[in-house]
Design goal:
Layout (H helix, E strand, L loop, with lengths): L14 H6 L8 E2 L1 H4 L4 H16 L1 H23 L7 E4 L2 H12 L5 E5 L4 H14 L2 E5 L8 H14 L3 E7 L11 H10 L3 E6 L10 H4 L3 E5 L11 E5 L20 H6 L12 H10 L2 H24 L15 E5 L10 H11 L4 E7 L2 E7 L6 H16 L1
Parallel strand pairs: 1-10, 3-4, 3-5, 5-6, 6-7
Antiparallel strand pairs: 2-8, 7-8, 9-11, 10-11
């Protein structure tokens, strides 16, 4: 019998930990927030599931798949302090957001987002405006932010100005700018005005302590393949019990007359094995220290890296209060440059090709290109020194 690896003995940031994520020596991964990265035991679990599926497809689809699905549901429900009956597993946050918005909105109803909302959410609402006649309102969040209450007040003003808003999509951590929004306070002001709340928690699981009873939103959707280490794509959707019978999956299948869990599990023939790696990811996550240890390491590293890069480049960090900083991510401005300006997505690709696989999140803030850093347990200071050297070379060209 093959001996099990004891990952609890691995030091965070060590070569052992880096090898667990199978990173090549040439690959400097500083953009974990984009697609996530799975450790070796999770990859092995995925391969095992694929082999099992291919060895006897009928057994897989007719018997085993639902059992595996419910195992993942139970693990996710425990993670978020939610009830199993209210928790569902799906592919990603984009799918979950579409599911809720297209189930809950009809006709000319209004939706509230903010200027840092994920592009896929903006695109979904633009499509819904054309298709269903909905209307999108937007909270403009600008910098600097002196206090998180200032953001709450912006939501209050927008909600009072537009009393026909039915649902607010609120980022727990904004994707382009890594702002940790005060979601509990925003949910409260929405609830007082009878506005439904959908939390976009794409970056939250594995970074933040999640408790559905404390947050009190109507809906919460979060990726598990980013910071919780499942294989991609894998996410959870939590639905408040009062809305459970109002929500439908995006696809209507043979199982539409079964339970809600059956409806979300069975979308026709497809490979959903990534969704069944939640328990393996959870075990790895806890084996290497759990939330406090992992985010403690990541936060110390990314905070140092942000300061080091600001000093090297002569720039400054994003001006936000400490309470709005997530543990594993940080943002800083880049130097002004006379070089031809290229978009943030193009700059990501440019750095991968030009600088031997250095991968970092460039973003745009108020028309300026900025840098979104990530830190994870396989990173060490040397990774950020390599990024510094690449940035200095880029701006000196």
């Amino acid at each position: 019998m093959e001996e099990k690896t004891d990952y609890s003995t691995y030091e965070l940031g060590s070569q052992e930990m880096r090898s667990t994520f199978r990173l090549s020596d040439a690959y400097v991964m500083l953009n974990h927030g984009a697609y996530g990265l799975s450790p070796q035991p999770v990859v092995e679990k995925r391969i095992q599931l694929i082999k099992e599926q291919e060895s006897h497809p009928d057994t897989w689809f007719r018997i085993n798949m639902m059992d595996y699905y419910m195992e993942s549901v139970k693990t996710a429900a425990k993670l978020i302090n939610g009830d199993v009956e209210d928790t569902f597993i799906l592919n990603n946050v984009t799918e979950g957001t579409n599911c809720i918005l297209k189930s809950m909105l009809k006709g000319s109803e209004e939706i509230l987002i903010n200027t840092h909302s994920y592009k896929a959410v903006q695109n979904t609402l633009s499509e819904m405006e054309t298709t269903f006649g909905t209307k999108t309102r937007c909270v403009e969040i600008c910098f600097p932010i002196l206090d998180e209450q200032d953001v709450v007040d912006l939501y209050v003003r927008q909600l009072d100005q537009y009393p026909n808003i039915k649902i607010a999509v609120i980022d727990h951590i904004t994707s382009p700018t890594a702002l940790k929004l005060p979601v509990e306070k925003i949910v409260e002001v929405c609830r007082k005005r009878n506005v439904l709340t959908l939390i976009d928690g794409a970056h939250a699981p594995g970074q933040l302590d999640l408790d559905m009873n404390r947050i009190k939103a109507d809906f919460y959707v979060g990726n598990l393949h980013k910071w919780y280490y499942t294989f991609r794509g894998c996410a959870f959707l939590w639905i408040s019990p009062k809305h459970r019978n109002k929500v439908l999956p995006l696809v209507t299948s043979n199982y539409s007359n079964f339970t809600m869990h059956h409806r979300f599990c069975y979308w026709g023939t497809r490979d959903t094995s990534p969704q069944f790696t939640v328990a393996s990811a959870s075990k790895f996550y806890e084996d290497i220290g759990g939330l406090e240890t992992i985010t403690g390491y990541n936060n110390k590293l990314v905070t140092w890296a942000q300061s080091m890069l600001c000093e090297a480049l002569g720039t400054k960090p994003l001006d936000i209060p400490r309470s709005m900083k997530p543990p594993n991510m940080a943002v800083l401005y880049l130097p002004k440059s006379s070089k031809k300006q290229i978009g943030s997505d193009e700059l990501i690709v440019y750095f991968i090709k030009k600088y031997n696989g250095i991968t970092v999140g460039f973003t745009t803030i108020d028309g300026e290109v900025a840098l979104r850093l990530s830190a994870n347990v396989y990173n060490c200071k040397d990774d950020y020194y390599k990024l510094r050297d690449a940035l200095l070379d880029y701006f000196d060209e």
